[in-house]
Amino acid sequence: MNIPAETRTQAADLLAYIDASPSPWHAAESTAQRLLAQGYTRLDETQRWKLVPGGRYFVMRGGASIIGFVLGSDALAHSGFRLVGAHTDSPGLRLKPRAAHSSEGVLRLGVEVYGGPILATFTDRDLSLAGRVNVRAPGGFETRLLHFDTPVARLANLAIHMNREVNDKGLKLDKQTELPLILGIASADADAAVTFRRHVAEKLQVQADDILTWELNLYDTQKGSLWGLEQEFIADSQLDNLASCHAALTALLACGNPAATCLCALFDHEEVGSESAVGAGGSFVSDVISRIAANAGLDEEARRCALARSFFISADMAHAYHPNFPAAYEPCHRVLVNGGPVIKSNAGQRYATGADSAARFIALCERAGVPYQQYTHRSDLGCGSTIGPIVAARLGMSCVDVGSPMWAMHSIRESAGVLDHGYMIAVLGEAFRV
User: Fold this and answer.
1) pTM score above 0.70
2) Residue 180 gets which letter from DSSP?
3) What CA–CA distance (Å, rounded) separates 18 from 37?
4) Which sequence spans correspond to the domains of the chain?
5) How far apart are CA 236 and CA 239, in angstroms?
6) pLDDT tens column, 106-134
7) Strands 127-137, 106-114: parallel, antiparallel or unpaired by DSSP?
């Protein structure tokens, strides 16, 4: 398999991006740091914006959602927007507000299920904690990112001697009683909550009493890797959907001086429905678009003209054909890893792709010189959804849902293709240029 050196470099950079982003808050911060390094200016939603022609900017909301944009050289009402959207969150386990407790001499952490992870894959992994913590500060509080970079917790499996049917019936975990994680040995003379809070405080170098609240998730400390006889595959956590975030960001950073105004919008909360102030169902992207239009001097009529001339690519990972489970796939829509970007369609509008938007994306693939594939879900299986229908409905913007094919979606350790990641970067770059 011929894999260009640039494509291998892009895959290695993806692994570095994911490994630096063990939570959605870290993913947004990793994105912000890359934008800053390329000369983008950070904007504040609470302040008036003064945008200059050709300017490069980004804005964050809620710590885990971020929109970067480049103002195009053409008149906005004439050229419209080129928008690529993805999401920073991944399914997994989140700590409860009062998580630490002891049970029969064992220090444990209570967790909630976030989204739809394959829970069995979280067992017997070297897990750690990452997210954000609010600490007391003069006049209120400030937010600190927290990242334990060594394993601190484990969801230990029950031995087969006590679960004899696990290989026949699968591992099933009660979400309330069987998901608490082992954190350590409980001390008879120490409160579990105090012990845990002390460790968090030491990591942040603050006083334990100054910790107010947190949002923390578990993550796998195993680094991402390439695998396969020719190192043609990628293995890592959070490929869904940090691979799409990385592809969109990389394409934006390489877009040069585009004619149309280009936006890369990365949202939190997709895995739980997007209906939040920071999710794709909120006002974030429409607020940013309105402010860009206002700075360009567009009235409401001209802004609507710009939206009508715009194109939105919803980038989220796609289900690759797995030869061990052929019955799980629509027979005529079996997409292959390293076979190119996938155009996702659903008659029930779980994906926002239409015939015209699909044709437009195919043209972009042809211009970029990359192959493409088409996917639809089996008719007798429920189909997942994306931010595509949500954002398209709110903006009234033509949209196509696409993604790179992958195996084991929502596992703690997912797999995708090296070539596919390069293909996606190339076609999204083409989208920003036309």
Assistant:
1) yes
2) P
3) 18
4) 5-90+237-433, 92-220
5) 6
6) 999 999 999 999 999 999 999 999 999 99
7) unpaired
